[in-house]
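Schema walkthrough. Field components (list of strings):
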Amino acid sequence: MNVSQRFVGVASFCWAPICLAQEPITEVDLYADVDVIKTGTRLQQPVMQVPASVTVIDQQMIAASGATQIPQLLRLVPGFLNYSVSGNQFGVSSRALSPDFPGHLEVMVDGRSVYQPALSTVIWTSLGIAIEDIDYIEVIRGSNTSTYGSNAFLGAINIVTTDILEAPKLSLRSLHGSIDTRDFSGRYTASVEDFSYSVSVLSQRNSGFDSLNEPESGPWPTHTRQDGIDNQQFRLQGLYTPTLNDEVDISLGFGNDRIKLPENDVRGYHNRQFDNNYQHMRWTHQLDNGNVALSFYHNRLNIKDDTVLGLLSVLAEVPPAAIPIGFPGQVDEVLLGDIRDGLSERYHLELQHMFDINQQLRLVWGSAFRVDRLGSRFLLGHDDIIQEEQYQLFGNAEWHFLPDWRANFSLMVEKNAIVGTFASPRAGLNYQINPNHMLRTSITAGKRTPSLLSVFQNTEITFADGTPIDQIIGNTGSADEEKLNVLEVGYLGRFLESDLTLDLKLFKEQLRDARYDAEQKGVGDIDDERRVWRNGLDWDNRGAELQLKYQPDGQWLLSWQYAYIDIDGALPDATSPKDIGTHIPKHNTSLLVAYRPLPDWELSGVVYHTSEMEWTGGDEVDEITRLDLRVARNLRFANWRGTLEFLAHNVTDDYFDYDEENRFERRFFVRLKIEFE
Amino acid sequence: MRIIKTYISRLIALSLMLCAPLVQAGSDIVLLLSSDALPYREVEQGIRATLFEQNNEVEISSLTLDALLKDETALPADHRVLVTIGTRATRHALQENISNTVYASFITASGLLREIASEKGFPDALQGAVVLDQPAERIVQLAKLINPKARRLGTVVNGSAPNRLDEFKRVVKGQGLELMAASLFEESNPIADLKNIFTRSDVFLVIPDKARFNSKIAKWVLFLSYRHRVPVIGYSKKYTDAGALISIFSTPWQVGRDTGERLLGYFSAQAQRPPVVRLQYPRYFSLSVNDKVAESLGLKIGDEAQLKERMRKQQGARIKDGAGLVLEIVEQ
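Field assembly_structure (string):
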């Protein structure tokens, strides 16, 4: 009997010998995953299969939050703190101390690390992207060193910008309001032949905290303190897909970011200028089974600083005539300080291969070579450039060994001249109770190479001829890797036909040999005191994190984040050992509610609450409760659309953000976004 | 009440499945699962619940292909029908001739065609099949429903593999519409080809292919959909979650229920082999709508139940409370 006569209903299907050479489409193809998270393991995995706690802040949450600065968005992540060291210097930390320059989180923009080795932190104002350019933010809440290396010691943040193909032809935005805010940004998208590109510009100006714009007096001349910003950034993105299997993504940017920073010791302010540029290219080639990706990026940040500390006699509160007595051969002179001319630079080359070994086992592995460069006469005590070369070998295997069980094994091996070779492994186990409920557990042994700055910093105040006056901070000449052991247990559940999701995590962390700047007696110092970078800070974290998101329909959105942490540890050799637990708030929560009473109107509000704490580089503050409100009106016309927003930040009482000088008052903004098709 | 009843029947089916030995001597129906994975178990539950509701005298047993490969005697010789669930199980049953009466389920039409084209000739054992593919008529009907003004539908297919392009061309033309289609090959520039389709289409249809091909184009399809404001009809809930306006698909439970009903028909026909072996499209299907996408596209298409009701009215079909979660259409 002829086959084609026997079948009814699929006559149109190709039925030729050539078809037999092709693997048929199966049920597995139809039920394959499309939604993916990549940051957790580098593998494309649905949230239910990731061996880590993941928070995704999508465009709806970004808009509803009313945030005007990117780091503010991270307050919507359980356990994450965002603070203002000054008006435009921001810090983000999680389950760790909160210094001026927090450095235990890996922050990436479209997969490119934006960590600055010179300052051991991220300069959030130099990212080069506007908040409206963000598509979503993936945050791994917990150590991810086994995937992304040292910087991801306590977590990883990947800021994913809106794809060129998705972006409107032209978008323009403006933000005006309190603290003399005048922000503008725009993005133009087009294509030439088969090359798609977009050009973005960003201009940002404000005057910082109002509370600092007041004349103050002291032993030094009366002056006005300011911590505003004048920031311009440019960005070019390109996309080229020469074949079905090849994709080339390009991103280039440069900018000039001038901020004023208060100087706590001398009650003044100084100008700091960041000139940044970066180049990022990624080529992805699809294979029959998996893909290969080659990426390269270069970040460069030049730092200029014009801090003038003042006359030595004024600072030391002695008559000018006393200077030659204390420092033979010297006379009273104006002292300069801080970073002066600094350089922070990173080159990163990476090759990654992802493939399926069989239906149960998937693997991603790769290698990277990185060069970090740091230069600053003030920070290092000399004019030479410090260079660190680092090699990385990484891999993650996902083993679907039983229908409802998956195991993930990750390993990152790093090698550099500072601490030699060290490895960060992780083992995770996910049990899918049913399609809507998942339990997971993981063990991580993370290691972090000390930051370049903490190894080589040697800062001292000198006369113009180099004669030392006062040692500020130095190093012990040796450094070991920081260590972290983590045990996590998590649950992810979907209820009410997935309208409600619940993410719960219990964790226990042991941090050992962390770097810190210990107090030490100075030698030949004016004040007989200096600080020295060293290993030896230990502490334990135990706690719970919860995220509950409820979205019953297009009208309502509710997202509640909560973190509890109990910390046991003390600064080991301080004059009087200090409980580290006071530096991290026990309770940290945020609640976002958005409601759409009419199709083109949206009302939203976010409450943030942080229990009392002492900011590591700042002051002790009481519990903080902040309420932000937003009213938005969508505008729709024939070939353009837009949004007009009224934002109110901190509508309740003033609070001190990080420093008692940083009084955060009510702020009001108007934001307009227009998009042309 | 019907929903509660359905849940109870599901619960009972699940209980029976858990309590009963995997294979019982003298089973009327043996279910051979491609693996122990959840979708295959859901098909099994759908079959059991349907048969339990309507004829609880039928003895059903089940085993996985891996269990059978370990112990060939695990398959009772005196079964009346072997129902293969998934491609692996169907392939094994047809190639190894382990049963004289095979009913295939939870397999794509192209997959089944591939399996029956063995060198040993056409397998006489195959009695029928419920395939996973959605009929082109149903997808085109949905396209017209979400955009009644649509005149041109767009799609791309894998030019290097068998595809359903001719079938869709015929159906679209029959509906008085035009199909903007392109075949993508390895050397194609996907964005250039897709842009060309999106700029000329009112609705874009994603015709599922191999997962590798699907994933290669999914990102570009969804980005361009947003950019050109053209709604996309996907083929799975995951596609909807990723950014398609709507997807049309049959859940494993629905396929199981459909299979169960067809088995009852087979038994009532005295188990006579039909004159032709029919590959049946799934009668039951689900829709999933992405409200955020609908809003961003400025479309008001209603929810899944409303859309199904409108499809039912257009088709004149009767409604059954199939899976207990959504109303389902049974094609006559």
